[in-house]
Structures are given as structure tokens and as C-alpha cells.
Amino acid sequence: MEKLKDQTDDLLDDTKNNNDSSTAPKNKRDLLITITLVTGVFVGASSSGMAIGYSAVLLPQLKLNSSAIPIDDHMGSWIASILTGSMPIGSVISAIIIDKIGRVRTFKIQSVVVSIAWIIVACAQSYEIMLLGRFTAGVASGIGVVVGQVYFTEVCRPNIRGILSAGPFISYSIGILIVYALGAVLPWRLVAGLSTAPGIIAFIIYSLLPESHIWLVKQNRTEEAIKSLTWFRANNVEETQNEIKQIISRFEHQKTEERINYRIFFEPQVLKPLCITIVLNILQTLSGVYIVVFYAIDIISNIGIEDLEINDMLVALITALVRMLFTVVFCVLLVYMSRRSFTLISGVSGTVFSFILGTCLYFNIKNYFIPVCLVIYVAATVGLLLLPGIMLGELFPIKARGVAGGLSHTIYSISIFGVAKAYPFFKENLKIYGIFWLFSLSSFLLSVIAFLVLPETKSSTLLEIEDYFLGKNLFWMNRKRKTISKENAAQCDKLNSSL
């Protein structure tokens, strides 16, 4: 390792000498790099958003008498839910190949797989082939979730990580809006064919991105790692030198540590956030945020707005547009609002408006307040849509984040699959008003549990969050405060910023 350090110092000196005469405007390079990264995030994630929203426009067309692939509600529930059911498979595949072939190559594979999935759907002549296409799209989405989180965390400066962490959520909403708009005017096969475009564009963008410097260091490809990081830091050689040395030092230290022991799951700093995350994620899926996406047209047609002479597809488009706009708003609010306030406002609002909507439907009240209330409910619950990503990024300690986060995301995907699959059962047994009461109850329980046990993580260091869970804290309001050395906290964050 000492030899590697000496070699690194020589390479860094060469890099500094080569860039001393560089006249490239740093601000312009920073802007170009940020635009390239953000575009990659948005385009890649929008393809997954289109896949999520596609069932809402596909199922009504397949249920027509003239459909080439006739289906019933049970078959439709499989088409809607199998996407999320196969996402954990993609996550596992990504976790296996991401360290073997690199981040960028994994991105490219994901882009190819999602394009193939759309081609399968577009060419499907049977129900089984349709399921295969949706299954493949879920695998691609699972791959994208893992590699996206790892790559952009590794290569980005801290000041743009917030933008990139919010990017996928905004992109999902944009993708849903796009596929709703296409489905309103085009047949489902053509919509699927056009949906291959984001995957192709993403492949081109990913081809322009350098490999993660952290992965290159782990492969002992130090010279390439320095070139990669120099590109990401806009030829800031001093910053590159500091980061590369920190990464090598960290890597050397990690090689002397034992591999992660799965008994760590029973340590309080892992077990507590894992339990909180799993419970809140399950309640989030039961609050209806994804059911309304998967079955938008069906839900809108069942709330009786046809008597108001309002087009179902128009209302679905409005909900998608509102979801996208409020995703942007909520992502901005994340910078200024506490995480607990953010979650509680969204949870309580979702509770109130879904209860009002269910009650109006129970008493068969039919006026323009119904679609307005639905749109407000969609806007209010956008905060709950962002909650799993926030918890994954902030609650788990670095040492167990990959494994614990992967387990949490797998259970989350399975819960979305289960709820989406159960929608026809809910509709038959609870009726449409009962479904919204279920949404209300779940949002209420989520709000109560979040109020009791969800810690405030805004402006807290990773060390402070881990220290909180290490304490004998059950309820946030009764937490026992510990004093943490500011020097240690700063050192922890500086060290983790290079990972």
C-alpha cells in the first residue's frame, strides 16, 4: 500500500503540472459537469417513472372489447404489480455486478434492459409476454435504483448531492406525466415503443461519464481514478489530491477490518432505524401513493365523475401534473424544513383529505369537490412519496448502509407489489370509499408513529444520528441527548464524503 501511495503522489504531481496551464473556466466546467450528471439522473429515472405509470393507461385499453389481449381485473392486477415484484431481483443483480464491472457499465446495462423491456411490451401478442415485459422493466428499475444511489453519492460534491438525490423523485413524476399524456392520445403499443427513447438517450449520456474514482481505486487503477476525479472536480488539482489520498487511506483501513458480521443487524444503531424504516415504508404503501399511480384511470372512473361530464384521462393528467409540481416544491422544502415537520404535514394532510374523499363517496356526494379533493390528496401525499429515500439516505450508519438499505428497499418493493396486487380485492370488498378510508387510516398511523419515533436528522452529522440510535431512546420526545465532539463529527463527515 505504501508503494501505491508513492505512485499516487507522483501521478498527482504530474496531474498538477499538466493542469497548471489550463485556461478552462472552472465555473463553466462545473456547470457543464452538473448539467451532464443531472441530465443522466433525470433521463434514466424518468424511464422508470414511465414504467410505473404505464399500467394506468394500459389496463383501460386492454379491458376494451376490441383489445388484442383481453384481460380481467385479476389479470390486470398482475400487470400492474409485477413491476415492483421484480425490482428486488434487479437490486440483487446490481449489487453483484456493480463492484465487478463498475458503475458506468452497470448503468449502460440498465439502459439496455429497460429498452428491451419496452420493446417486449410493444410487441406482446399474449398476456404472458406482456407480463414478461413488465417483469423485465421491474428488473431494470431495481438495477437503476442501486447503481444510481452509489454512483452519484461517490462522484458528486456535497453541494449538489441534494439536487441529485431529489432528481430521481422529480424524474419519476415527470415520467408518469409523460406516459399519461401519451396514453391519452395514443394506443398502448405506440406508447411502449416511444418509451424506449429515454433508455437510449440515457445510454448515450452514461457513455460520456467517467467511471467512479472510488471503484477505480479499489481496482488499483489509480491513474484512471485521478483522471476521473480531476474531471468531476473541474481540474481542481488540490481538491483531487486531498480526496484521492483520503480514499486510499480509507481503503487501506478497510482492508484491515473484518467483513461485516450479520450480527450487526441486532445492534441498536442498525436495528432501530431498520424497524422504523420498514414500518413507515409499509404504511406509506398502504396510504395509497402508488395505488393512485398504478390504477389512476380505474380509481377516477369509480369515483363517479362521469356524471360531471369530466374526462377521466384529463383528471389523471391533472393529478400527474400536480404530483410533478409538488415533488419539485417538496424537494425545495427539504432544504429548509425539518424532516419530522415535512413528514407530519404530508401525513396529516393525506389523512384528512383521503378521509373526506372516502366520506363523500360513501354518501354518494357527486360534485366538482370530488376531483378537486383527489388532486389535493395527491399533492399532499407527495411528501410521503419522498419519505423512503430520505430515510435510506440519512438513518442508516455507513458501515451497514448497503446491506440494511438493500434489505429495507427489498421489503418496501414487496409491500408495493402486495398492495398493488390486492387492489381488485380491496375494490370488491371495501368499495372505493373504503379504499380511501384505508388510505386515511394508514396515513394517520404513519403520522403517529413518525411523531413518536422518527428522529430529526436535518443539520445532524452522520455521527450524531448514529449516536442517537446507540442511546436508550425509544421515543423522540424523551430522547437522551449526548454530547459529541464537534471535531469527531466533522472528521466523520469529511471521511464519509469521500465514499
UniProtKB/TrEMBL annotation:
It is a multi-pass membrane protein. Residues 1-24 are annotated as: Disordered. The chain crosses the membrane at residues 31-57, 77-97, 133-152, 164-182, 188-209, 274-297, 313-335, 342-363, 369-391, 403-426, 432-454. One of its GO terms (cellular component) is membrane. It is found in: Membrane. SUPFAM superfamilies: MFS general substrate transporter. It holds the Pfam family Sugar_tr. Keywords: Membrane, Transmembrane, Transmembrane helix. One of its GO terms (molecular function) is transmembrane transporter activity. It comes from the Eukaryota. Residues 33-458 form the Major facilitator superfamily (MFS) profile domain. Its main location: membrane. Residues 1-17 have a biased composition (Basic and acidic residues). Gene3D superfamilies: MFS general substrate transporter like domains. This is Major facilitator superfamily (MFS) profile domain-containing protein.
